[in-house]
Amino acid sequence: MTSPTTSNSVELAHVLIVGLVSVSDRASGGVYEDKGLPALADWLAGALTTPFRIETRLIPDERAQIEATLLDLVDVVRCHLVLTTGGTGPSRRDVTPEATVAIGTKEMPGFGEQMRQISLQFVPTAILSRQTAVIREIDGHAALVMNLPGQPKAIKETLEGLKDADGKQMVGGIFAAVPYCVDLIGGPYMETNPAVCKAFRPKSALRPAPSTGNNA
Question: What does residue 49 show for φ and ψ, rounded to 5 degrees?
């Protein structure tokens, strides 16, 4: 399912494409409504200020299907960033990290480490989470693939980090590092809304964003 979120009727060739994957046996089977995909889409709409579009997938906890979905989003759809939600715990059906590592060409363990550090501020069971991230590289294209928690509240916390009552950043969120990572693998230049998440780049990597848009 495709969900366009750009304001331009003519999509630029180098517009950011984000894949969103919710991994859940029950949600994909219609037992209950999936909340991961709407939460991710809403967060991105508020966080990104550059044009983008999203591709969404809702699939069961089947490793082969997860791998096939990630390969399709990166190799065929040409997503620059893929975010998964669900399937990262210790149960036998939780195989999202294994599928993610299987399709990657480079592991990026720092993202998972920081997610657990953020979640540990709330619950000691955060150490049971196995989120990870990888880069997948193919000829002429590369993408960052990251596993996120399954709950909307935890998704927001890990992406944004933790702020005090005055809005001062206490613990950095993982998304602050995503735009520069996408730069380094040859993707579009991403700008964010600093009120939600301020992207970090070295001074040498800063440049004007190619365009701005309302992604509401």
Answer: -110, 0
